[in-house]
Amino acid sequence: MRPYVRLIVVGVATITLSGLVMSQSPRDGGKHISAPSVASAAEIVRLDPGLDAVIAPGTKIEKVASGFVFAEGPMWRSGRLWFSDVKGNKLYALTPDGKPILLMDHSGGVDNVRPDGGFKGSNGIATDKDGNVLVTQHGARRIVRLDEHLKASTFLDRFEGKRFNSPNDLVFAPDGALWFTDPPYGLDGQDSDPTKELKFNGVFRYANGKLTAPIRDLSRPNGIGLTKDGKTLYVANSDPEMFVERYKVAADGSVSNGTRFIEYPGSAPDVPDGLKLDSADNLWTSGPGGIRVISPAGKVLGQIKLPEVAANLAWADDGRTLYITASTSVYRLRVKTPGAMPLYRR
After folding, report:
1. Which of 101, 223, 268, 309 gets the most CB atoms within 10 Å of its CB?
2. 72-110 pLDDT, tens digit each
3. Which distant-in-sequence residues (6+ apart) come within 8 Å of 251 by Cβ?
4. Cα separation of 334 and 148, whole Å?
5. By three-state DSSP, how is residue 191 classified?
6. Sheet holding 329-334, edge to edge
7. Is residue 7 domain-resident?
8. Mean pLDDT in residue range 255-277
């Protein structure tokens, strides 16, 4: 049986990377609001009593910072929230008191070439086993590794000799394999773009120097996550059909038994995007109307509603704090059930 869930309407800063220290200017020409406060028009909707064990009743949602173009791809690192402005083409570190520090301009590896910026910036971010940072670059259509000076070098950019579309989100499995999604959002013409080289929008796995594409039949794979035992994979599909698919993962990285975990009605831009799991294997996934908290059995426990489109999320403070990147702003709230922190972190 496939669980089906309908939409429920309800100065100079010091940066540390891999143990080394450098200085970066916090100014990037933007006008950012940096004063954490209780977010107006935001609420936590309790849809099942089980939510009380996950988020304490009465929990408030804070707006931490605002003034971005399209905040995405968050990751907690060294006491700061790293995140991308995928349309602003910048990479930031946000302090707990709401001060955004510009780490990298043109973080997508190219200049903005469209009046609206397009989705040319960086997106997903992850710390690797050596403590370096991997960043997906929509514009340059690759995954790069940042060194201690924030200099980018190509990590992965091709599959079977063909360039990726625009790597989007990424996660390390418990066995150390890197999984990532590759929709065409960074291409101006998307699937019809003349520079598109791959015939599919895939989900890839990189392990022991070998790159494979276990999933090739999703139209727009986006957010990605694995359970703590690495045996279950979740992938958000953004459009035209909007859903999260769940797969079984074998020891060799092959997948099987793809089933619809949750489906959504609606249309862009409020689509399934980023997702994360907590220590109880509850799935926290963005989608129309906000973030859903869903039990492993497929029961929607609650919904986090924000005044902006929620794109992605990340755990912080050993999983006790959830940060949400939502369009122009970053929000956060405390949780009772700790989030599942990434395999590698700093």
Report:
1. 223
2. 999 999 999 999 999 999 999 999 999 999 999 999 999
3. none
4. 31
5. helix
6. 37-38, 62-66, 329-334, 321-326, 312-316
7. no
8. 90
